[in-house]
Amino acid sequence: MHLPNEQQTQFLNLVNQHRGILYRLAKSYSPDAEEQADMVQEMILQLWHAFSKFEGKSQFSTWMYRVCINTMMTYQRQKKRENGNRTAWFHWTDKTTQQPEKENTSINLVYQSLHALNELERAIFFQYLEGLSGRDIALNLGISEGAIRVRINRIKEKLKKTLISYGYQYE
Amino acid sequence: MDTNMNNVEKLWQSQVTHETEIQVEHLNPRETHTLVDAVRKNMRMEFYCFLASPLLFVIPFILKTNSPLSTSILAITFIVLLLVSIYYLSRFYKFYKTSGHMLFNSKENLIWFYYELRFNMELYRSFVYHGLSIGFFAGFIWGIIEPHISNKTEIDQLDLVLYVIFIVMLLLLTVWFTQFWLRLFYGKYLNRVKALLDELNVNVE
Known about the structure:
The structure holds 2 protein chains of 2 kinds. Chain A is mainly α. Chain A has helices at residues 6-17, 19-29, 33-51, 60-73, 88-91, 101-115, 119-129, 134-141, 145-165.
């Protein structure tokens, strides 16, 4: 068994504290479990390659969002999965959750509606849902905070229509 | 609408996902699938193919068509092409190395990569055309002038015309093939980056 060195240990500790980011971001990009695993692996590798350049000036999670978003925006989907099971969302269940079936379906619909957004919209709204400030989203993407606010409002409108068309039940 | 989106946000925050712990095995190098890595992979592949190109200079010796003068011409051509290649390959290598460490925000990464890739594609064309020019000149000396000098015969006008026709056809074919090759291996990624920049409302030429 390969034992990690000090730097690898430090990296793994930090990434595992925030590994939810990787899985949620991958699910935002694809309904296919195999492709999600590939995307998560991709983000881990890119984070690891960039780790030596992490200076600690910002929080690790903030830096992680930046690298992961950059990775996913330029991720090349593999041709073999282009014709994959596009109805996977309707059959997907999270085996670890104890939440009622209704909420499972609702979160699936949210992910499905994210999948319908374009690259930039998805990147912006994912960070918004994750709780990042407009300023952090703007810094990560390199566009102005004002532009981010405008886009978030437009995405909310778009998302609402998409969710209704998918059968999401607003309470 | 805000209340409804608040529900979506609460749903998002309260979701539980199946998360496998990241292990050291996940850090093992493997083929990566980003746009940048696809370009870098193509550059590596081309470099390995390029390393085989000096074998072309062995052909005249296999065909036993070399005289002392033609051997000198081949040697000079080889050295000039080598120097030209070193210049261009060093530029490509610089792009290859720096493209692997893009840590800026998304827009800056993409802008940098877009213009660098475009520039290197132009360098690629320049490299091909330079190599072609040297090759044609050497071919003219080796194929037309050298036999005249070695065998002390007149330059055959028909040979000259055929050579010119051959060169023009080869030139057109090479130009077309270079454009096709660049589009196939790099142009599609350039278009993808441009599309992303368009989404970010960045105007690029």
